[in-house]
Design a protein that fits this description.
The protein is mostly helical and about 280 residues long. Helix content is about 60%, strand content about 5%. It has a domain at about 5-80 and about 245-275: Glutaredoxin.
């Protein structure tokens, strides 16, 4: 009865998938092509999620359009199985989760790319500025929430400003410092335990996705705490990691397969099915 609209390599889609898998919540997968076909910008998907982002979780009397909302939903459904249910631990867990969401994963990965390949900077600038213009043009010719399209265009301009206003190596250094400070600020982990004791928590979920992305970006040396290194080794053995399709490297074949699957399953039919079920 629950549909998860997501993209295979999307960072925040992985947060949602891992949270739902760890909580034992079954969903029907609705893959989107957010890179080439840009299905997240379609009128059909905008009717579901005006932010035009993934993931989105939909069910009877349920619509969650952000990974943090889906994470909280999973924690609530997990109940006492997760440490979030302990009122003495909940504030610290909440702080760890909020600290994770304060990190701009996109800025980290793009600044790493542009530092290694500075010749890509004009191309990135053209792509983002071109996308902003396309969104503005669509807003001028649609009656379906044009304000959302204009807001998305402005967001892309701000992303472009973030990536180009400061030299990429400086941005990357600042992002590395932020990630390192976040990791250093996490609680000490005892042998065989999770971040907040013997039970999993929302903080463990977001940390696992963060470390997976750092691994993919060849930035795992930022994790210089032996206790968290041991935590990461143990976490990777959890069944939910496989069930959630948590990426620690770019999987070209999986990426292409996901694009094809997304194009074979039109979003409109999903929405109509859900509306008439």
């Amino acid at each position: 009865m629950l549909e998860l609209f997501h993209a295979a390599p999307s960072y925040y889609s992985m947060v949602a998938r891992l949270a739902l898998a760890e909580a034992g919540i079954a969903t029907t997968s609705r893959l989107l092509d957010i890179h080439l076909a840009k299905q997240q910008l379609s009128d059909d998907y905008r009717a579901l999620n005006p932010h035009m982002t993934v993931p989105t979780l939909r069910g009877p009397d349920l619509l969650l359009t952000d990974s943090s909302e889906i994470l909280a939903f999973a924690a609530a459904r997990a109940g006492a199985a997760w440490a979030d249910a302990d009122p003495t631990l909940a504030p610290a867990i909440g702080d760890a989760v909020q600290g994770h969401y304060a990190i701009s994963i996109e800025t980290l990965t793009f600044s790493k790319l542009l530092t290694a390949r500075p010749w890509l900077r004009p191309l990135v600038a053209r792509l983002l500025s071109g996308l902003s213009r396309q969104l503005e043009q669509r807003a001028a010719h649609t009656a379906i929430d044009p304000a959302a399209l204009l807001a998305k265009a402005q967001q892309d301009r701000e992303r472009l400003q973030t990536l180009t206003a400061t030299p990429a190596p400086e941005t990357l250094a600042a992002m590395r410092a932020q990630v390192r400070a976040y990791l250093q600020g996490l609680p000490p982990v005892a042998d065989g335990a999770w971040l907040f004791g013997s039970r999993l928590s929302s903080a463990d979920v977001v940390l696992a996705v963060l470390l997976a992305r750092l691994t993919m970006a060849a930035e795992l040396p930022l994790l210089d705490r032996p206790d968290l290194q041991g935590w990461w080794q143990r976490y990777q053995g959890r069944p939910a990691v496989t069930a959630a399709d948590l990426w620690t490297r770019f999987q070209r074949r999986r990426f292409l397969e996901a694009l094809l699957e997304a194009r074979r399953t039109p979003i409109l039919s999903h929405l109509l099915e859900a509306a008439t079920a």
